[in-house]
Amino acid sequence: MKFPVKHVVACALLAFGAAAASAQTIIKFSHVVAQDTPKGKAAEFFAKKAAELTKGKVKVEVYANSALYKDKEEMEALQMGSVQMLAPSLAKFGPLGVKEFELFDMPFIFDDREDLHKVTQGPVGARLMAKLEPKGITGLAFWDNGFKSFSANKPLKTVADYKGQKFRIQSSKVLEEEIRSLGGIPQVIAFGETYQALQTGVVDGTENPISNFYTQKMHEVQKHLSLTNHGYLGYAVIVNKKFWDGLPADQRDQLTQAMKLATAYANQIAQEENDLALDGVKKSGKTTVYTPTKEERLALKKALAPVHEKMGDRVGKETLKEVYQATGFDPAHL
Ligand code: LMR
């Protein structure tokens, strides 16, 4: 029996349409920290909400702990479309050429999360995200982690204690200047290699929000942790722009909604996760936790104030001014 060609074509088109409709969109979401951190938990939360809101049409696969890519490689992978979503720390955008992001690395620039949110949720945050578009990246949200503290194998009380110590940092010119201002030696090392670098003595110390310090087990290889809270570490959740723009509009809307919920969740748990991690460090008995006195912290703040002047041009003096106005921070008058 012969079928008219137009019937055969119509059937083929129907079959193709049905297959396309049932095809699932996969989002690979890669990150470098442990699952049990603010970012790790928020990524899982987003995956769950994305599945619920898209009724299973989108599956978010989360790869934690640098399982797919290390720091620098993950940004390249996103641009090439090998992964669709990341949440790199804000420091990771400087090497991408968007140096203004390094404003978040400026020492003591935010007193607390309220100050930080004035920037991430205000016009500066929106402008920074827009700068990613020409790089083929769309910024979806800022996620909190927390304030960083210094650790080493010797007590870090006075500024003189930092002298000559090698500190692992993220790849950021501002962070390099921060360590130099304390008389230390900065060493850029991938996050996933930091534990080993501390263990083998490649570096003496590092700086981290406590949730990262604890979940990477750095307390096993650092004798002293000084609660300096001298700088901030948080994230921008980003997607490959071409992928994002190519999604069906309804899926993009549902994912945007899932991201809103995940952002609220991330920002709600960030402090608590860091508090729990600090308890964990203390209970381990392996690292001595020190809280600097008011005077010691002020001395650190003063020693780090010149970083703002030296790195102002790199970050953008006008943007910095805008941030100071929003937060009330003034490095010239401490
Ligand atoms: C780091 O390299 O220290 C951070 O970027 C890790 C993180 O929280 O993503």
List keywords for this structure.
single chain, 9-stranded mixed β-sheet, D-Maltodextrin-Binding Protein, domain 2, binds (2S)-2-hydroxybutanedioic acid, 334 residues, 13 helices, globular, alpha/beta
Produce a short descriptive summary:
This protein has 334 residues and is of the alpha/beta class. The chain is 46% helix and 19% strand. The longest helix is centred in the C-terminal third of the chain and has 36 residues, at 249-284.
**Strand coverage percent:** 15-25%
Largest sheet, in brief, is: 9 strands, mixed
Q: State the low-pLDDT regions, or none.
A: 13-21
How many domain modules? 1
What binds here, in terms of ligands, is:
(2S)-2-hydroxybutanedioic acid
Element order, helices and strands? Answer: HEHEHEHHEEHEHEHEHHEHHH
pLDDT averaged residue by residue: 94
Describe this structure in words.
- This protein is an alpha/beta fold.
- It has a single domain, classed as D-Maltodextrin-Binding Protein, domain 2.
- It has 13 helices and nine strands.
- The chain has helices at 5-22, 38-53, 71-80, 113-120, 123-130, 173-181, 194-199, 210-215, 241-245, 249-284, 294-304, 306-315, 317-327, and strands at residues 25-30, 58-63, 85-86, 137-152, 166-169, 185-188, 205-209, 224-240, 288-290.
- Helix 2 (38-53) links the parallel strand 1 and strand 2 (58-63).
- Helix 2 packs antiparallel against helix 10 and helix 6 runs antiparallel to helix 12.
- The protein is globular and about 60 Å long.
- It starts with a helix and ends in a 7-residue tail after the last helix.
- The site of (2S)-2-hydroxybutanedioic acid (LMR) has 10 residues, from loops.
